[in-house]
């Protein structure tokens, strides 16, 4: 069976913009979509990336320009500078892994978390806020929160981060198919083509 390794940061506005199209591509090719949330600040520290807040003003301005273009094209609302932008995403990432271990629908869960940060002005690093987001999305937040604290899930999160680096990923979202890296939701057409070959 074909498999797409999907490395993403739970704070990634670009992963949010690509989420539905990625799932559609996986379904089109009957491919397994392997969700792998990562600690992107650590990936950056190993691969030369720079956190958004530390980038040059010119780069920050262009990011907003590109976001607006894609939001208009995809008809998805993203606030480029939300009130709680890119807080600590470790708990939310572990909650996603806990849901993955239960074979729950990860598209709905991750999109709810993305939307909370990028459209609804919510702080996804706040446990009570995150619990509410998860519950409102139709998941058993209490159970997922409890399981997210288990050592195996903490280790899995760390392993995904290391696997991303080993696979050559340096940003979010990154998709890997048969050893080939596709970085960014704007490369999804190339991933689609690779799966067709």
TrEMBL record:
<dbReference type="InterPro" id="IPR051924">
    <property type="entry name" value="GST_Kappa/NadH"/>
</dbReference>
<dbReference type="InterPro" id="IPR001853">
    <property type="entry name" value="DSBA-like_thioredoxin_dom"/>
</dbReference>
<comment type="similarity">
    <text>Belongs to the GST superfamily. NadH family.</text>
</comment>
<dbReference type="GO" id="GO:0006749">
    <property type="term" value="P:glutathione metabolic process"/>
</dbReference>
<dbReference type="Pfam" id="PF01323">
    <property type="entry name" value="DSBA"/>
</dbReference>
<dbReference type="InterPro" id="IPR036249">
    <property type="entry name" value="Thioredoxin-like_sf"/>
</dbReference>
<dbReference type="GO" id="GO:0018845">
    <property type="term" value="F:2-hydroxychromene-2-carboxylate isomerase activity"/>
</dbReference>
<dbReference type="InterPro" id="IPR044087">
    <property type="entry name" value="NahD-like"/>
</dbReference>
<keyword id="KW-0413">Isomerase</keyword>
<dbReference type="GO" id="GO:0004364">
    <property type="term" value="F:glutathione transferase activity"/>
</dbReference>
<protein>
    <recommendedName>
        <fullName>2-hydroxychromene-2-carboxylate isomerase</fullName>
        <ecNumber>5.99.1.4</ecNumber>
    </recommendedName>
</protein>
<feature type="domain" description="DSBA-like thioredoxin">
    <location>
        <begin position="4"/>
        <end position="195"/>
    </location>
</feature>
<dbReference type="InterPro" id="IPR014440">
    <property type="entry name" value="HCCAis_GSTk"/>
</dbReference>
<dbReference type="GO" id="GO:1901170">
    <property type="term" value="P:naphthalene catabolic process"/>
</dbReference>
<dbReference type="GO" id="GO:0004602">
    <property type="term" value="F:glutathione peroxidase activity"/>
</dbReference>
<feature type="active site" description="Nucleophile">
    <location>
        <position position="12"/>
    </location>
</feature>
């Amino acid at each position: 069976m074909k498999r797409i390794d999907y490395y993403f940061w739970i704070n990634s506005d670009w992963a949010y913009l690509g989420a539905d199209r990625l799932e559609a591509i996986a379904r089109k090719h009957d491919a397994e979509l392997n969700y792998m949330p990562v600690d992107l600040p650590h990936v950056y520290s190993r691969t030369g990336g720079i956190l958004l807040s530390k980038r040059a003003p010119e780069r920050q301005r262009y990011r907003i320009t590109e976001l607006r273009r894609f939001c208009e094209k995809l008809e998805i609302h993203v606030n480029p500078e939300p009130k709680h932008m890119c807080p600590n995403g470790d708990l939310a990432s572990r909650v996603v892994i806990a849901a993955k271990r239960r074979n729950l629908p990860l598209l709905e869960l991750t999109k709810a978390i993305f939307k909370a940060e990028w459209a609804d002005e919510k702080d996804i690093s706040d446990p009570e806020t995150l619990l509410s987001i998860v519950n409102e999305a139709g998941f058993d937040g209490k159970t997922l929160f409890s399981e997210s604290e288990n050592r195996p899930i903490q280790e899995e999160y760390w392993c995904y981060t290391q696997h991303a680096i080993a696979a050559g990923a340096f940003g979010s979202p990154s998709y890997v198919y048969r050893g080939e890296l596709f970085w960014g939701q704007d490369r999804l057409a190339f991933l689609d083509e690779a799966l067709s070959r």
